[in-house]
Design a protein that fits this description.
Number of strands: 0
Low-confidence stretches: none
Mean pLDDT: 92
Distance between the termini: 13 Å
Oligomer: single chain
Helix content: over 70%
Shape: rod-shaped
Strand content: under 5%
Length: about 110
Amino acid sequence: MNAEQIEDRANKALGYLTDSDQTAADLKHEAEKALAMYESSVDARFLYEEGSVEIRKAKARQATGGSYLAYLDAQREYDAVANKRKSEALVVDWCRSLYANYRQGK
């Protein structure tokens, strides 16, 4: 790789990191909101069920339908962006190291 290629790759990685800040925050918020909605629906349903505590918990979790799946989907979307951001951050570090080595070799 020459210096121009290293700079281009680093710029691409930095661009992704900059552009995805808000997206990552929004997806994290959606995941947290979905989890809060699931937990509040389980807690509310728990109050109205009858039987032992364990039976009430099980009935409450069962009655929530797909709200936990909605949380898992939101968390998966956030994790995909977060993992890509981590990869791009590693690319930036790699490019810095590679560029430093390239400059020392000149």
